[in-house]
Amino acid sequence: EKDGYAHYMEKEIYEQPRALRNTMTGRIDEAGQKVVFPDLQLPAETIRSIEKIYIVACGTAYHAGLIGKHVIESLARIPVEVDVASEFRYRRPLFGPNTLTIAVSQSGETADTLAAMREAKRNGSVVLAITNVVGSSIAREADEVITTNAGPEIAVASTKAYTSQLIAFYLWGMYLAQEKAALAPAEIASLIQSLQQLPGQVEDILAHAQQLRQFAEAIKDERHLFFIGRGIDHAVSMEGSLKLKEISYIHSEAYAAGELKHGTLALIEEGTRVVALSTQDALHEKMISNITEVKARGANVLGITHEDHVDLHRSVDDVCLIPKTDALFTPVLAVIPLQLIAYYTSVVLGNDVDRPRNLAKSVTVE
Ligand code: F6R
């Protein structure tokens, strides 16, 4: 059932191109011009009147939510707050008459996420679930559901569910922008075109996976690492750091690259490993300065960037190149090397990759 792969996690990493295509299926019109959601009942009027959005989720799904915020704010210009589900109820969140709450959950059974969405419903908010499991508790209790259709995810460390959640957010952000006329039809069509290229681009990255096996060998004895990035790259760094922690048991921290100099830079010493993401053209120069700051303190840096920034070679020790895409879509590509780093590190350390210690696939207690 692992189809020749050594672990479910490896199989699920390689299933991503298909999972992403499945999340898109039926949600783009035949001409490739518009996003459609045939299974959503939300009246157009309700969609146009949304004034604020809460995203509630845990762990990896929360990290997808952080990207979702960037996407929705930038495409549809609606303010979005992202909350860790276990915190949401206890901070007395403010709901207006036109607040939409989005609950994100692979399993659809996470107790914290369920409790957060019930709190939203109690406050009169419409709840939209993004989930991978049809008929799950979260799917049943939500007003509307977008299923990710990634197929069953067995490994505890989430991979294809995360990238499928990102696709769901892209489609939803584009749909809001389209219904609110926040973007011109030509802009939507061009985004759709880039979106449809992502599965093939993920295949290209997976074809060069071996490069990251060497990196895993190099970091397996480290006590701690840093992942740095700006904007959505920071959110992707958080996911890369979580993945590495949960299956390799090596401590790491994700940092907004510009924030390092406000304290954390003190932890960088000769040989400290840093994974630096620079996928955003508008932030690339700033990232180079931040990389120079850690290099000056002796860090050993792996840079992850796209093909136009091959010049990054001059500033780092190693470069991992990903294909070029629209600035908002880079997380789908940038996370793949991070998943592979976590996977290979866990393998070389001889850990139980699919069932890491202390963790359960579905967390049904609060
Ligand atoms: C990490 C991981 C967890 C889950 C979290 C939420 O790889 O799998 O952080 O993402 O427990 O689970 P779901 O999405 O099922 O609500």
From TrEMBL:
GO terms for cellular component: cytosol. Its main location: cytoplasm. One of its GO terms (biological process) is UDP-N-acetylglucosamine metabolic process. Catalyzes the first step in hexosamine metabolism, converting fructose-6P into glucosamine-6P using glutamine as a nitrogen source. One of its GO terms (molecular function) is glutamine-fructose-6-phosphate transaminase (isomerizing) activity. This is Glutamine--fructose-6-phosphate aminotransferase [isomerizing]. Its EC number is 2.6.1.16. It catalyses: D-fructose 6-phosphate + L-glutamine = D-glucosamine 6-phosphate + L-glutamate. Keywords: Aminotransferase, Cytoplasm, Glutamine amidotransferase, Repeat, Transferase. It comes from Brevibacillus agri. Residues 43-182, 215-356 form the SIS domain. The keyword Transferase applies.
